[in-house]
Design brief:
Layout (H helix, E strand, L loop, with lengths): L14 H24 L5 H8 L8 H20 L21 H17 L3 H7 L5 H24 L1
Helix pairs in contact: 2-4, 5-6
Length: 157
């Protein structure tokens, strides 16, 4: 999959557009992090109890997911009716629909990692603010895994 390196370098909209894009991206990241904290998605015990349907199941994260779907579904459809995003020339939406071995392997690794650690990438990065050593270990392992994938992808995939 090719990466569009022109994103963020659209000079036709001027320097202010880049600043606005960065500020909007930062604001969205902060809002996402606050949502993760409020919903307790940064708490591995909460996540693991949600996944433990045969034991001490805690269904409250289902409401978090349901709320996300209720907001995302209509807003995604509404926003994509626009000719382009506010600060870019085009939307960058995946167009692949096939299910291949890489997708399945990635989903399995993600699910196993989430089930073992109770964290996934977004909440893990937000949980770094907690200063807890296991979170730093998880993020370091995640970074090593991403680097290994990059190296293996160039050589074998």
């Amino acid at each position: 999959m090719a990466i569009d390196n022109s994103r963020g370098h659209d000079n036709s909209q001027g320097h202010d557009s880049s600043k606005a894009r960065i500020l909007l991206s930062f604001g969205c990241g902060v809002l996402f992090a606050v949502g993760l904290i409020v919903s307790q998605m940064v708490n591995p015990a909460k996540v693991l109890n949600f996944l433990d349907v045969a034991g001490q199941w805690d269904p409250t994260l289902a409401f978090v997911m349901g709320g996300a779907v209720l907001v995302t579904f209509p807003m995604f459809r509404l926003i994509l009716k626009r000719p382009h995003p506010l600060f870019d020339r085009t939307f960058y939406v995946p167009n692949r629909r096939d299910i291949d071995g890489r997708l399945i392997t990635g989903a399995i690794l993600f699910g196993v990692g989430w089930g073992m650690a109770g964290l996934c990438p977004g909440p893990a990065l937000t949980a770094l603010a907690s200063g807890l050593l296991p979170v730093f270990g998880f993020v370091a392992s995640m970074a090593v895994g991403a680097l290994m994938y990059h190296i293996l992808q160039e050589r074998y995939l």
